[in-house]
Amino acid sequence: MTEPTRSHPDEIVIGLVSISDRASSGVYEDKGLPALEAWLGQALASPWRVEKRLIADEPEQISAALIELVDTFGCDLVLTTGGTGPARRDVTPEATLAVGTKEMPGFGEQMRQISLNFVPTAILSRQVAVIRETAGHAGLIINLPGQPKSIQETLEGLRDETGAVKVPGIFAAVPYCIDLIGGPYVTTHEQVVAAFRPKSARRVPPA
Ligand SMILES: Nc1ncnc2c1ncn2[C@@H]1O[C@H](COP(=O)(O)OP(=O)(O)OP(=O)(O)O)[C@@H](O)[C@H]1O
Ligand SMILES: Nc1nc2c(c(=O)[nH]1)N[C@H]1C(S)=C(S)[C@@H](COP(=O)(O)O)O[C@H]1N2
């Protein structure tokens, strides 16, 4: 894959993957993809488009979806939800590590820290993040837990009663990571999540 065709130079292409045996077989309605899309709609200030998949907890299907999204669709970022726990069929971290060329352990570490503010079972999520690099492109892949409310919790973090950020969500670090792997310049709405970039990496706003 070379870089994807973007409708705007700053457009980010995002893959969304909901991994659930029951949602993918119609036992319950999938709430993962709508929650991911709704959160991105509130958070992103720069242009974006998504490519979505709903699949079962099958390692081959998960790895194949991740490869297709990064290599064929040119996704700069892929967010997965589900399958990160200790149950026998929870295999999302293994399937993600299998397609990564670099592991990014900080994302999983920070998400477990954030989630501990919401549930004591946060440590049961084995979520990981990786970068998948091909000859002409790279994509950041991040696992989120399956509980739909955990999507906002981990991406956005936690605020106190005055609205001040108590624990930063992991999305604060995503735009700069996308810069570093050669992707588009992503901006966010600060009232949802303030993206952090070192001063030298900030785009100077037009006068
Ligand atoms: N895609 C989804 N849509 C709606 N709710 C979900 C989804 N995925 C998970 N949940 C909810 O979060 C809980 C924990 O998610 P988890 O990924 O551990 O599911 P699970 O028990 O492995 O089952 P399944 O893979 O069939 O969703 C589920 O029991 C369900 O209530
Ligand atoms: N923010 C947040 N993190 C969370 C949760 C949650 O509700 N909110 N649920 C935990 C639970 S109960 C489990 S078992 C693990 C793994 O969930 P998964 O298998 O659905 O990915 O995520 C944990 N992390």
From TrEMBL:
The keyword Acetylation does not apply. Pfam families: MoCF_biosynth. Its EC number is 2.7.7.75. Keywords: ATP-binding, Molybdenum cofactor biosynthesis, Nucleotide-binding, Nucleotidyltransferase, Transferase. It catalyses: molybdopterin + ATP + H(+) = adenylyl-molybdopterin + diphosphate. One of its GO terms (molecular function) is molybdopterin adenylyltransferase activity. Pathway: Cofactor biosynthesis; molybdopterin biosynthesis. CDD domains: MogA_MoaB. Transmembrane segments: none annotated. It comes from the Bacteria. InterPro entries: MoaB/Mog-like_dom_sf, MoaB/Mog_dom, MoCF_biosynth_CS, MPT_Adenylyltrnsfr/MoaC-Rel. It is an enzyme of class 2 (transferase). One of its GO terms (biological process) is Mo-molybdopterin cofactor biosynthetic process. Residues 15-165 form the MoaB/Mog domain. Belongs to the MoaB/Mog family. Catalyzes the adenylation of molybdopterin as part of the biosynthesis of the molybdenum-cofactor. This is Molybdopterin adenylyltransferase. It comes from Trinickia dinghuensis.
